[in-house]
Write a structure and sequence with these properties.
The protein folds into 2 domains: 2-97, Rossmann fold (3-Layer(aba) Sandwich), CATH 3.40.50; 106-203, Orthogonal Bundle (N-(1-d-carboxylethyl)-l-norvaline Dehydrogenase, domain 2), CATH 1.10.1040.10. It has a 5-stranded mixed β-sheet, with helices on both faces. It is built from 9 helices and 5 strands. The chain has helices at residues 10-23, 39-42, 77-89, 106-122, 128-143, 148-155, 157-167, 179-186, 203-224, and strands at 2-4, 30-32, 52-57, 66-71, 93-97.
Length: 237
């Protein structure tokens, strides 16, 4: 298996896989760690598109258990299932994305939440700090124990169905990133890398935040360790 992790430019990814098709073993899987480009687009023009798959890790990759195994339009499903099993054997938590969409599975869920979050900030309903607190110490806290589907079974499907019927008509449906986010980008305020995003950063505060962030992730892994595959686990999907 070959895993590509080069910069997010479609043209150079396509060029690289055209070379890999010529030089990699004929039975080798060709996987891309792209977080945005559809696997079908990267594999366009390849003669062996059936062995082309997405294998999308999440930052920080050495701590985050999830990995997405993504099928393109021409990907061989059996190869994807074999890759899924292999990633479990590596101690990861794979999810199989059977259809190729921009953002795959996890990033689509993440951006759906972000769209509503930034819309609430734009409307003056909540501050960035309060949006973060609502997620981290409210429903996001519960997500460590149960995802959004299982959580509904805990709470009662009829409760959430009724709540959805009330709220969905007023949820953000904008097709562009939120104004508060776009404005920061236009001003060159990209976050830690430029010293300011929604919050101001110094080298000292960045170091402190990264230490806190990693410590929290490690604590979360400790809580979840009994549910994570162990390295060498041969469990089937």
């Amino acid at each position: 298996m070959v895993i590509e992790c080069i910069p997010e430019r479609l043209d150079i990814k396509q060029a690289l896989f055209a070379q890999l098709e010529q030089h990699a073993r004929k039975d080798a899987l060709l996987a891309s760690n792209s977080s945005s480009f559809p696997i079908t687009a990267i594999a366009q023009g390849l003669q062996t598109r059936d062995r082309m798959l997405g294998l999308h890790f999440f930052m920080p990759a050495h701590l985050t258990p999830l990995v997405e195994v993504v099928c393109g339009e021409a990907s061989n499903l059996e190869s994807a299932q074999n890759l899924y099993t292999f990633m479990r054997q590596c101690g990861m938590v794979p999810v199989l994305v059977r259809k190729d969409l921009p953002g795959f599975l996890a990033n689509r869920l993440q951006h759906a939440l972000a769209r509503e979050a930034f819309a609430l900030i734009d409307a003056g309903i909540a501050s960035p700090e309060d949006v973060d607190a609502a997620v981290r110490f409210g429903f996001g806290f519960r997500f460590l124990a149960a995802g959004p589907v299982l959580q509904r079974d805990h709470a009662g499907l009829e409760v959430h169905c009724a709540a959805g019927a009330t709220m969905y008509p007023s949820l953000a449906a904008n097709k562009e990133p939120g104004q508060c986010l776009s404005q920061k980008v236009a001003e060159g305020k990209f976050g830690m890398k430029t010293g300011e995003g929604f919050f101001k950063w110094t080298p000292e505060s960045i170091a402190q935040e990264k230490q806190r962030y990693q410590k929290t992730l490690l604590a979360g892994l400790e809580i979840l360790k009994s549910e994570l595959p162990s390295v060498g686990d041969a469990a089937e999907q």
